[in-house]
């Protein structure tokens, strides 16, 4: 059996609607297998697609391997200014 | 043929003039900056008789081109001491374009204290006495003026801050429901109009002949391509990011990357960010109902519609619009996480004709100085009231962030060329910091919106921490100057960066309108000419390369959470627009 780790996930813009109980800007704790990637986390959380992902405030990509207690934010395509 | 309307405020006379050949292929920023360069002595006092205000719709403003209702205002800035171009999205631009107004040049000053308004229609141009509106808010004046002049009009005006010649005074245009809410906000151009005792310009679109188009078929072809790109790009399409959450959708994202300046640029993350975000505004509109609305357009013909109407607790209108920059400036930058308080302050700024970025920057410095505590929204509202009352303290605050910092000995003063920095932390996002430093307007994000690439990944993702960005910044600044010349909203950038046919359509629209044969290379060439001219004005006005720098504290104060420092060399900065 694989070891489990905890990561903290934020969902912005329309992605937050996937988890309506999650308060805006707050993070939810998610159990994932050790050495899971961003892509695996997205699949586990049933996030259909995203444009950007930040891990601990740094832009990463789908292949990034996550570590225990990482803070991850998924963002759909947005713009502003 | 389109004409130039020259208005002499000294004797309240007007002249319609033919457009000189050198101005034919210019509009918007390209034209206002060109005329200011040609006609205004760079060393004149910004509030003296030799400064001018130049107003121009973009090349395609007034046509059926999507999201093209930008009006450009130019002059010498009392805030920066250099050239200033500031633009807004409003039906005023569309009507001016359809009236075949190439540009309006306002010069001279009256000899007495009378406040004037001007009414421009297809038939004539008339002056009216505006004394009854002086000293009053724009929420009082605009409904009365629309009642007097009818619904086919649009309004431009200045508020109390402009009358008092304060450096944070913007120029206020009406939105499509006639609110005083769309601002050519930056650089204190409202004070220049105030110096000329011009309160309002009404444009009346009845009987307007419409914009002349050299090649209708090419124009329509380009228009369709660009519209299709806007309607299909995830950022700009109906139900897309901008339409659903407004520009403030960026709050949570910038907070996440540690790039949301907080408490006068002390930190890069704000604990209350979620509460002042676009998502929170959307939730507020749903929860409170009433008139609350996301997906509101600032002018007819905009397909993006990123504006909003924020409801109060009873569902009545609190204010329109709270933009990203505004919710940051009056929120995170002041440590305030209350949308109702931010809405109240935004409404006060609209009413007094104030730039919300400069107001938030000033409040952050006032908090730094100890006038009130960070997070004290009631205190912040009281400080804004001082501006409206024109008290000695109000005079200081109304002259902006740098004036307030000087008066109170605050070293952490986030300005470039005297203008307050916007809502992106330059120690973390290096390209936007370079834009702030070197663009001719002073602290300004719209001059070269590298955030699109550095944070949002449009046109190819770049690393925000990467320092090798001279080329990226240069390209954004030049392309932006062309978009600002076209009359399109800057937000078309997302679609034209990512969708090649959108860019093609953008150029074809301009070629169709003018009968030119521009290519993609001409976009950069023309943008460069605009920027070179603006820089030449600044140099002649006395602004040197030493003014193309970020505030010193950013070199030695690290900003959490990434512990970023401003570390771009002077040589790199000087190479960007060399």
**What form of chain A results from the Cα inertia axes?**
globular
**Helical segment tally of chain B?**
23
Mean pLDDT of chain B: 97
Low-confidence stretches of chain B: none
CATH architectural type of the domain at 3-204 in chain B: 4-Layer Sandwich
Shape of chain B: globular
The CATH architecture classification of chain A is Roll
The greatest interface here is: A-B, 23 and 48 residues
Features:
heterodimer; A: 81 residues; mainly beta; Ubiquitin-like (UB roll); five-stranded mixed β-sheet; 5 strands; B: alpha+beta; Aldehyde Ferredoxin Oxidoreductase,  A, domain 1; 17 strands
Please characterize this protein's 3D structure.
The complex is a heterodimer of chains A (81) and B (578). Helices cover 9% and strands 32% of the residues of chain A. With 81 residues, chain A is mostly beta strands. Chain B has a domain at 3-204: Aldehyde ferredoxin oxidoreductase, N-terminal domain (Aldehyde Ferredoxin Oxidoreductase,  A, domain 1, 4-Layer Sandwich). In chain B, a hairpin with a 4-residue loop joins β7 and β8 (125-129). In chain B, α12 (356-368) packs parallel to α15. The two termini of chain B are 37 Å apart. The model of chain B has no long low-confidence stretch (mean pLDDT 97). Chains A and B meet through loops of A and α7, α8 and α9 of B.
